[in-house]
Every structure is written in structure tokens, then in C-alpha cells.
Amino acid sequence: MKASALEFRFRFLIHAMIFVVGFTAPWNFALHYDTIRTWQLLAATLARHKWQSFSDATIAVLMAGIFFATAAALLRTWAAAYLSSSVVQNAGLRGDAVVAAGPYRYLRNPLYVGIFLHTLALSLLMPPTGAVFCIVAVGVFQLRLIGAEEDFLTKQQGESYPAYRAKVPSILPALRARVPTSEVRPRWLQAVAGEIYMWGVAGSFAILGWRYNGQLVTQGVLVSLGVSLVVRAFLPKK
């Protein structure tokens, strides 16, 4: 269950296509489903079961969105600081040595886990059927990417990566560091710049979300994407 080299090369485009389909949910038009957002549906469900009032439930779901978006930004920035923007954004598979520093001492795939947390946040802005599609599609694609990357690293690094793999979990982080830290100097400024989209989405939820307008938050997401494309054009390529 691993992605092909072509899938890995175009992974950002594939993620974008999945998100677009999730937001548009084109089958809703054919099936005449309501265009309610997942945020509203979850709040209404909580209220209908009398767990919370609709107002409190709306805030609770928003807080979940802020948590997922912020956690994704933090985790990906922490991970990217110990690699580099060129490695994170590279179209090909790379990895000359095991990086056992930062989050990589607790789990092997923090960047992919960050993407999935980000997906959970974005899904709140999608129609319910689009959200289900997006979460499942991104989850499966992430597992395929992990399979391809770990197979490559095993072949590339010989015994060092299997030894690291045996100690550090893949996607569920350990509570304590499983390996000694590598002597890798984090590049925080470059990492924040490289993950500016993630921080923009977290900010959109945290600031615009209190208007309780999913369309406004979605516009913030799109602006964040545009800003990130500009910023990435100036990041180091090597």
C-alpha cells in the first residue's frame, strides 16, 4: 500500500484536488442534498441530543477546529525546522540520514500527521458528505505516501532506518522520546515561512471563526494559500 513515484511527486496537487472535491461535493447537486456545512451539522446534532445548546455547541465545534488547525501548524513547523523547506517541498523522495531530532524522536511522520489534523479542521467548513470523502481520501493517501517514503528510506539508509523505525512509532506519538537526539540545528524562521499556509488557516479559525461564518473562514483559508504560494517562491530550493 504505497504511493507511486508519480503520486509522491504531485502529492501537493493531489491533496489540493481532494480538498477542492471535499469543498464542492459535486454529488450533492445530483442527489439534491442540503448545502449545510459540517460545522453546523455537528452543532445541531449536539443540540438535538441535548448535550449542549446550539449556541454552545457551535462554539465547541469552533474550538475543535481551532485546536486541529493550530496543532497541525505547530507540529508541521516543529518538524520542518529540523529538515528544511527544500526537503519538505521537494518533489522527489530524499533522505540521506536519519533525522532523530525534534518531533522525530516521538513519531516518524509528523508532517503527515500534521496534514491529517489540518484536514480535520478544514472538513468542518465542507458539506458533510464532502468532509467524509476528504477525511477518508486524505487518510488513505497519507498512508500510501508513508509507505512509499519509508520503503525508500529503508533502501537508502541501510540498517539505520529500520533500527530507528523499530523504536519510534509511525503516526501515534510516544509520550517520551524513543531515541537520542541528533545534532541537527533547527531553522525556525524558514520553517515558519514554509508553513505560512498552515498558520494562516489556524489564524482564520481563531480570528474569523468568531463571526460564526464558515464562508468567511473559507475565504481566509484561500487568502492563506495565496500568501503561502508567494512566500514559497522565495524560500531556498536547496
Sum up the structure in keywords:
238 residues; mainly alpha
Strand content: under 5%
Oligomeric status of the shown chains?
single chain
* Secondary structural class: mainly alpha
**Arithmetic mean of pLDDT:** 90
Task: Give Rg in angstroms.
Answer: 19 Å
Euclidean distance between termini CA atoms = 30 Å
User: In DSSP terms, counting alpha (H) and pi (I) runs of 4 or more, how many helices?
Assistant: 12
Biggest sheet layout: none
Query: Helicity, in percent?
Result: 55-70%
Number of strands: 0
Q: What ranges have pLDDT less than 50 throughout 5 or more consecutive residues?
A: none
Tell me the series of helices and strands, N- to C-terminal: HHHHHHHHHHHH
Outline: globular
In total, how many domains does the architecture comprise?
A: 1
Task: Describe it.
The protein has 238 residues and is mainly alpha-helical. The chain has one domain. The protein is built from twelve helices and no strands. Helix 5 (54-81) packs antiparallel against helix 11. The radius of gyration is 19 Å and the shape is globular.
Set down the secondary structure blueprint.
Blueprint: H1 5-9, H2 11-24, H3 27-31, H4 38-48, H5 54-81, H6 85-89, H7 110-123, H8 128-157, H9 160-167, H10 188-194, H11 196-208, H12 214-232
Helix pairs in contact: 2-8, 4-5, 5-7, 5-10, 5-11, 7-8, 11-12
